[in-house]
């Protein structure tokens, strides 16, 4: 690298951006073409894509047969939101050009980002027909199918790419870790763990560690999960999505104080993370600290009334405490936000029944059983509510359904005989 350019880069790395950029601008005016290409790449990395484009367009004019320049120009245009220009650049790179494979991968990314998945897939499949043993293309297809949710296809191509053994060293993530991710998503946890270990042995990275810890948690290897998550937080304390999972691993090992501590630490990093408050609430309930747990659930719902898990936990709390006024206040609050779940209607019906609003309870239970007809506890509550409202026929129907689900309930059988 040009010595003056190296000095300018060092200035930027040390935080002297303005001075470093001024030196680069001066160099740009009198540099050779190779140095200009390096400066264009540097501008791109710094987010100064407009400057990159100006240089690369000049170089393309001088070297019209250098496909890598056209591929780089396409990346610049894509960053600037000029997808059509980027596609035009990439489609001009012919088969046989060293940059052809890179062009097909970039084209596939562009088409995929535009929602043209079939076109993207065709580009990749056409390319691999010409070079069936190209590991980069195989890896690209693995990425494409993983993003699309076609996990078995992605596993096949990732395996082929790894088997080839000649992937570039500068890939953003090890292929073993991507294969492990696909295995983990499909529930093939043991296979996933093998490739996570292999990939992380080569080089650790936060996403790989998270995947390894999460998969260890699924197979109930809590010790490995804890060690892995702790290592991840040592590497990146701001990786906030790991805190609730580390807490779960601690809880599974009966390390409740450590679980509480890690959740509180996570909240300091991200005070708007609903999952952290939800896990803290469950933890407080498990310790018998019901008011503290209730407070954390209310915090979650204040942050996001759509968090059904938190709402259900709080409704169950109110039910256990026989706090029907609190239950109704919560449901009415959710009504104001347009939040709905059939289970909420079950709790509304129960609370209204306790407040002697039989008509309101009937209406609520009708809404609940329309979607939750196979929930045995709701059937019994609804049946008793309909009977209390004088709707004997409907009550009998629901009790018969309940008896079908619970044939050992002789008390229900006797009640049906009495009613009939």
Automatic annotation (TrEMBL):
<dbReference type="InterPro" id="IPR011990">
    <property type="entry name" value="TPR-like_helical_dom_sf"/>
</dbReference>
<feature type="repeat" description="TPR">
    <location>
        <begin position="135"/>
        <end position="168"/>
    </location>
</feature>
<dbReference type="InterPro" id="IPR019734">
    <property type="entry name" value="TPR_rpt"/>
</dbReference>
<dbReference type="InterPro" id="IPR051012">
    <property type="entry name" value="CellSynth/LPSAsmb/PSIAsmb"/>
</dbReference>
<feature type="repeat" description="TPR">
    <location>
        <begin position="206"/>
        <end position="239"/>
    </location>
</feature>
<dbReference type="Pfam" id="PF13432">
    <property type="entry name" value="TPR_16"/>
</dbReference>
<dbReference type="Pfam" id="PF13181">
    <property type="entry name" value="TPR_8"/>
</dbReference>
<keyword id="KW-0802">TPR repeat</keyword>
<dbReference type="InterPro" id="IPR006597">
    <property type="entry name" value="Sel1-like"/>
</dbReference>
<feature type="repeat" description="TPR">
    <location>
        <begin position="274"/>
        <end position="307"/>
    </location>
</feature>
<keyword id="KW-0677">Repeat</keyword>
<protein>
    <recommendedName>
        <fullName>Tetratricopeptide repeat protein</fullName>
    </recommendedName>
</protein>
<dbReference type="Pfam" id="PF14559">
    <property type="entry name" value="TPR_19"/>
</dbReference>
